[in-house]
Write a structure and sequence with these properties.
The chain is mainly beta and about 400 residues long. Helices cover about 5% and strands about 50% of the residues. It has one helix spanning about 1-15, and strands at about 20-25, 30-35, 40-45, 50-60, 70-75, 80-85, 100-105, 110-115, 125-135, 170-180, 180-190, 195-200, 205-215, 220-225, 230-235, 250-255, 260-270, 275-285, 295-300, 305-315, 320-325, 330-335, 345, 360-370, 375-380, 385-395. The protein is globular, with a radius of gyration of 23 Å.
């Protein structure tokens, strides 16, 4: 308790404007708090190190759109994890509820949980639950097999035609393989019940997953899992693709890093349901698996203005662009070849659940460069407002 008190005082010194909001949180005991519009509430907890924590923020206002947001910080103020919409299989949670699952904390000390409203202008009551698990020691490796297998194990993933669908057949209206790289599924999303589809991929595969509503009632969300690990999630694609409605969802150019079975989950936002058209496309293979080299630059624009940045890229590079707004600024990203005014990709609100990005920030993930040359990034605002931002350009090759 003395360590908790000392480190909590250190945190309060780092964030004096929020010090009065920090209260101690008891693991395993649900805590109810009210979140006001535009405000945050912070809770402190301590660990002994080598522990994994799970935090749930569940809205108690069942008849409005209150949308809790969770963030976890260490005592020096570094953001460790955040979540807005959980997109898990926990059916007792609404799609708007927030979940940070099995966050590993190696260092002992005090950590801070911050709860706010994801839509900025809402307010409501939230039930907060923290659980802490001591990490089990790493088990010893299994003994070697006593005899060799009778057939040779394949070293490459099976073709797309072997994709399995582990869901009740009455939910599937059609499964069609157009070629070995593209598969389309017409299915039914039921209230509070994700539609699940499994496919096999290998490292270096580049996968795009799109969920298009075929019902006036359905607002689709799409997530990609490897075993039980959530890899990516999207609520709204935020692009200028005219073949999609604004509420349609897309995970764009996700680079696979591990061989095995992956699962696509599609569910409706806020219990919405209806017909959905799902497309799983493998657009490339042998993509680079490195994290890439990143360059950060800060800038600002006047109302109605824009900022332009140029960078060089090689054919086969994968480019990720993020624009993070400050003080409520809503940035939009446009990527172009330097000599061509036609946009290659545009994004306004990224619709993902990513640490360090707010709901209105922009993201172009893993865009594949087809020709070596100069490329131009434009940052502006769809509302033509003034503001400051940070642009990150990451090149994987």
């Amino acid at each position: 308790m003395r360590l908790l008190t000392v480190l909590l005082i250190a945190w309060m010194a780092l964030t004096p404007s929020r010090a009065q909001e920090i209260v101690a949180l008891t693991p395993g005991v649900p805590t109810i708090t009210r979140i006001e519009a535009g405000a945050v509430t912070q809770f402190a907890f301590g660990t002994q190190g080598r522990e994994s924590v799970t935090v749930i923020a569940r809205s108690l206002d069942r008849f409005n759109d209150f949308n809790p947001m969770l963030r976890v910080y260490n005592v020096d103020g570094s953001l460790l994890a955040q979540n807005d919409n959980h997109f898990s299989n926990q059916l007792e949670l609404r799609p708007q509820d927030a979940l940070i699952s099995q966050l590993r904390l190696n260092a002992p000390g005090v950590y801070i949980i911050e709860v706010s409203e994801g839509n900025v202008n809402g307010s409501g009551e939230v039930e907060l639950l923290l659980t802490i698990d001591i990490d089990a020691p790493t088990p010893p490796p299994p003994p070697p097999p006593t005899r060799a297998p009778l057939v040779e194990t394949p070293t490459s993933a099976p073709p797309a035609e072997s994709i399995a669908t582990p869901i009740p057949p009455e939910q599937v209206t059609e499964v069609r393989v157009e070629n070995e790289a593209i598969q389309t599924i017409q299915a039914i999303v039921r209230p509070n019940e994700p539609y699940m589809h499994r496919f096999t991929a290998q490292p270096g595969d580049v996968i795009t997953i799109t969920a298009r509503t075929r019902s006036n009632a359905l607002d689709p969300q799409v997530a990609l899992f490897f075993r039980d690990e959530l890899l990516a999630v999207n609520d709204a694609h935020g692009t200028i693709d005219t073949s999609m409605e604004a509420r349609d969802a897309r995970i764009y150019n996700h680079i696979i890093t591990r061989q095995g079975d992956y699962e696509v989950h599609v569910r409706g936002y806020d219990e919405s349901n209806g017909d959905v058209l799902i497309t799983i496309e493998r657009s490339a293979q042998n993509a680079p698996l490195t994290s890439g080299a990143a360059q950060n630059v800060r800038g600002s624009i006047d109302a109605g203005g824009s900022a332009q940045f140029t960078f060089a890229a090689q054919a086969g590079d994968y480019i990720t662009l993020t624009a993070r707004g400050f003080d409520g600024f809503d940035p939009r990203l446009t990527l172009r070849a330097d000599a061509d005014p036609a946009p290659l990709y545009v994004n306004d609100d990224h619709g993902m659940s990513l640490a360090g990005l707010g709901m209105r920030d922009a993201l172009i993930p893993n865009y594949r460069i087809e020709a070596t040359g100069l490329y131009r990034v434009q940052v502006d605002s769809p509302a033509n407002t003034a503001g400051a931002f940070e642009l990150t350009i990451t090149i994987r090759r």
